[in-house]
Structure formats: structure tokens, C-alpha cells
Amino acid sequence: GVILLPITIMGMFLGGFLIKKFKLHITEMAKFACITFIIAYLLNLLYFTCSCEVLQVAGLTAPYSGLKHLSSPKNNFMASCNADCGCKLDQWDPVCGDNGITYMTACFAGCKSSTGTGKNMVFHNCSCVEGQRHGLGNSSAVLGQCQRESCTKAFPYFLALQTACAFILALGGTPTYMIMFRSVSPDLKSFAVGIETLGGRVLGGLPAPIYFGALIDETCLKWGTKNCGGSGSCRVYDTKGFRNVYLGLIAGLRAGCCLLYIVLCVLIMKRFK
């Protein structure tokens, strides 16, 4: 927000300045808005190159180190190293082992003792963790999920791409509004603004969270459990599936918008040539 909000404001003001500076006709504004949207759409496709690996959770997305699973293939959280620990499957208090793998709780890591309190808590003698310097069962784990290096490295590129897309979209936003004001009769301008706002809410603002949320939920690998029973929030997503579903849906919707922009541009050029 700190980065994108000023960039968006700058793009909107610059778009208005270009209209005033070069005294763009409505046909030229239509071309300008269409071109900026198509460029932003093509840049948007580069989001697919920004990858982030799935969180490595023992028994869910990563196997226990050379140990035999004791539970069903669907829930492989139990292994020979934590079979006698009495771990609860509905708990989620992740710890990061020396091996870079996240465990649902310290119990699933087979940890026997702990030192420290709060965020500084460290668990010792973890029977399921095989560290780089220690053998199996002699390693430790810290509270919290393990960091993913590829996510950290890809984030600056993702942010730069998002900034460029936001700027170009904002650049064509002001000409788009000006097209609406100049293409309708003066007595219908207020009505046109109302219809435009209504269309945006009905087609985008209201239904989008429903179908976006439904598709995103399909990529969840581990659901949390509420205290009163029932499904809670998602703990681990299939990040590759999440990326493909989320970005693919956006790309599909914007492809339709590109066609509408082209149709609008052609109609305006025929009417005001």
C-alpha cells in the first residue's frame, strides 16, 4: 500500500495532465486507454514467472526423514518417531526444525524438552528432526514456520512488476472516465456515472470475493479446526495451485476486458471520426 498508492495517484494525475497538455480528442483518448490496458494485461502475464515453493510441512508436503508412516496416506502426520507422543491432529502451532522442515506442532517433531518462552522458545531432543550437524533425534526446533528463500528472493521482482502494472492501469483510468463524460449528452452524465458505478459493483465488487474465494479454497492443503468444531482458516496452501488459479482467473477476466476496450475504441472512432 505504501508503494502502490502514490504510484496509482501519480498515474491518474499524469493521465489527466496528458489529456490537457496535448488536448486529446475522444478518439485519441479511446486509443490511449485501450493501449495502456493491453500493455498492463501483457505485463500481468509475467506474474506467472514469480514462483514460491510450497511450505515444507512434515507429513503433508514433505516426508519424515527416512521414517515409516503409521497413519493413512491421506494424513501422514504420524510416524514411528512420534507414535508414542499422543499428538492431536487438530492443533496447529508450527515449529521449524534444524533440517528446514516445518512440523505442525513440537509434538509431531517428537521434541522432549524446551527452553525459553514466547517467540524465543526452543525445543530440544526432537526425535523426528534430522539436522545437518546432528543425527536423527538429537536436533532442535524453534517456534514458527520455516522461511522460504525463493519467496524472499522473488518478492522484490513481484513488487516491481505490480508497481508497473498499477501505474499503467492508472495512467489509462482518467482517459476512460473522460470518454464517458464526453460521449454522452450533458443531461445524461449523472445517469451514466450511476450506471457505471452500479455495473462495477454488480459485476465485480459483489460476486468477485465469492468465486475467487471458492477457487482459492480448492488449493488448501490443511484446514484449521475451530474450538467448537468445524473448519477454520487454511493453514497451508498449495502455492503453485494458488498462483495458477488466482492469476489465471484474473488473466481470463482481463482478456474479456481487452476485447471490450477494443470494441469501445472501434465504436468511438466510427462515431466521432
From TrEMBL:
Residues 75-130 form the Kazal-like domain. The chain crosses the membrane at residues 6-22, 29-48, 155-180, 245-269. One of its GO terms (molecular function) is sodium-independent organic anion transmembrane transporter activity. Keywords: Cell membrane, Disulfide bond, Membrane, Transmembrane, Transmembrane helix. GO terms for biological process: sodium-independent organic anion transport. InterPro entries: Kazal_dom (IPR002350), Kazal_dom_sf (IPR036058), MFS_trans_sf (IPR036259), OATP (IPR004156). GO terms for cellular component: basolateral plasma membrane. It is found in: Cell membrane. Belongs to the organo anion transporter (TC 2.A.60) family. This is Solute carrier organic anion transporter family member 1B1. It comes from Antrostomus carolinensis (Chuck-will's-widow).
